[in-house]
Specification:
By secondary structure, the protein is of the alpha+beta class. The chain is about 20% helix and about 35% strand. It folds into two domains: about 80 residues, Ribosomal protein L6 (Outer Surface Protein A, domain 3), CATH 3.90.930.12; about 90 residues, Ribosomal protein L6 (Outer Surface Protein A, domain 3).
Length: about 180
Amino acid sequence: MARIGDNPIPFGDAVTVSVDDHNVVTIEGPKGTLVEQIDPEMTLEIADDHMVVQRPTDQKRHRSLHGLSRSLLVNMVEGVTEGYKKELKIIGVGYRAQKSNGTLEIALGYSHPIYFLPPGDISVSVDSDRGQDDIIIVEGIDKELVGQVAAKIRSLRPPEPYKGKGVRYVDEHISLKAGKTAAR
């Protein structure tokens, strides 16, 4: 049985952690500040260079919240120190992306271009130097928000299963289907 919640959460000197009376955790680091509400039944013990999440009982709900709380806090510490990045590749003839005035303009084979304005905490850039396909880079300190923005961009034109055209993650593999063949 996994015991993820029992592991201490290390953080360096550059990270400041504070918890108020309602279990609202604020983590400040070199890249920014993140705030998260942890379940009030969980208790946090903060030492000099690490913190530990404690659960009140061994009920199934408390065990679940224990691991979840620890994972959320680890992601926050990693986000304010290193940040998160997702890369998306645009594949298809005439499919392209460019950034202008803080807005991502994407042409995906529709009759109109798509304008995507990322949230304030997320930075989106386009790298077209890596070959024939444009790469959209989504960066930020909040892991959930970075993944959500990348998934939203991917949902504008998901990869189709016959030629593989569309928007996909750089490390994503699409299994292509065989097309129609002539009956003899």
